[in-house]
Write the structure tokens for this entry.
Amino acid sequence: MKTKLITLLALTASLAVTTGCQHVQPWQRSTLADPVMQAGRDPLGTALGEHVYFSREAAAGGAGVGGGGCGCN
């Protein structure tokens, strides 16, 4: 039982360490800079998402410039 737990923990740790990192070559960066890859490329979709978020949270604002409303940005 203990060896299975150690094996499982080792496997989980190795997966966590080895995923998520990718080296991008300079000639591949133009693909990543394509407007299709940008999250806010659809203004209508962004506005709809913000409307839904603020309707759920019962608050407005907060998506723009930082500051607490006291004028001390």
